[in-house]
């Protein structure tokens, strides 16, 4: 017989779409109300003044101003202090 056995179905080609996470507005850029500043999973960054955190941990602006990133020490429930990244919107 001169034919080949059938190859069957492939197991490739089922990769998920990327979620486009990360920083969207950087330090010093102007943000308008509703602008997304950071898309994230979990709370790598926390919302500061004039910023809010959405249900999917997205940080967005609630007032117009300039984006500023800062680090701050925060005490946990057992008294240990850790450094957290805070996103603020400074009014112009």
User: What is the CA-based Rg, rounded?
Assistant: 22 Å
Level-2 CATH architecture: Beta Barrel
**CATH H level: which superfamily?**
RNA polymerase II/Efflux pump adaptor protein, barrel-sandwich hybrid domain
Average pLDDT level:
92
> Any idea of the CATH topology?
OB fold (Dihydrolipoamide Acetyltransferase, E2P)
Can you tell me the overall shape?
elongated
Q: What is the structural class?
A: mainly beta
Task: Please indicate the percent range of residues in DSSP E strands (runs of 2 or more).
Answer: 35-45%
Terminal CA distance: 81 Å
Can you identify the CATH class? Mainly Beta
* Number of helical regions: 0
Number of domains: 1
Strand order within the widest beta sheet = 1-3-6-5
Total strand segments: 8
State the share of residues found in helices, binned by percent: under 10%
List keywords for this structure.
92 residues; mainly beta; 8 strands; 41% strand
Overview of the molecule:
With 92 residues, the chain is mainly β. The protein has a single domain (22-90), classed as Beta Barrel (OB fold (Dihydrolipoamide Acetyltransferase, E2P)), CATH 2.40.50.100. It is built from no helices and eight strands. The strands form two sheets. A four-stranded antiparallel β-sheet has the order 1-3-6-5, with no helix packed on it. Strands 2-7-8-4 form a four-stranded mixed β-sheet, with no helix packed on it. A hairpin with a 5-residue loop joins strand 7 and strand 8 (81-90). It is elongated. The mean pLDDT is 92.
């Amino acid at each position: 017989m001169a034919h080949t056995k059938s190859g069957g179905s492939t197991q490739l080609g089922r990769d998920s779409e990327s979620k486009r996470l990360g920083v969207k507005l950087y330090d010093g850029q102007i943000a308008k109300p509703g602008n997304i500043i950071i898309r994230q999973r979990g709370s790598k960054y926390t919302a500061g003044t004039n910023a809010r955190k959405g249900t999917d941990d997205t940080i967005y602006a609630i007032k117009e101003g300039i984006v500023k990133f800062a680090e701050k020490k925060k005490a946990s429930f057992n008294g240990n202090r850790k450094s957290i990244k805070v996103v603020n919107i400074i009014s112009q």
